[in-house]
Write a structure and sequence with these properties.
By secondary structure, this protein is mainly β. Helix content is 13%, strand content 45%.
Amino acid sequence: MKKIIFIFFLIFTSKVQSIIYPIEPKYASLKKDRVYLRWNASFEAPIKFIYQKKNLPILIIDKFDNWRKISDFEGDEGWIHISMISNKNTFINKKEQNLLKYKNDKIITAIIKEGVIGKIIMCEEKLCKVKIKPYRGWIEKKYLWGIKKN
């Protein structure tokens, strides 16, 4: 009897947890210049929005079959087919800031405007080394959307 209760408890708790936390949220990016955000996880579902920027960072918050529910930097949510998602680490800059040539120096390579999208090379505690064509350098991590903050 104790074994049955224990097995029931294991099955019940694992199913409850999977309902509350379907997947671990993960940053990714858009693979194409034209990506449809849909209301539901189906090609027949109405289009909610059309993204027109390759490498735009997204946050994957749920999944169903070959579909991923995403959230963008403005908080919009919807479903995208996995064929349109890339694992490239990208970011969108949320505040104008200086791109520094070296992380411990004050040499400014460029001024990065709000809304600029780039690729993440690596991150440290407060700064990230990034590539924004044709520039490469260091910017403050706290103003970037598309990367984990810790």
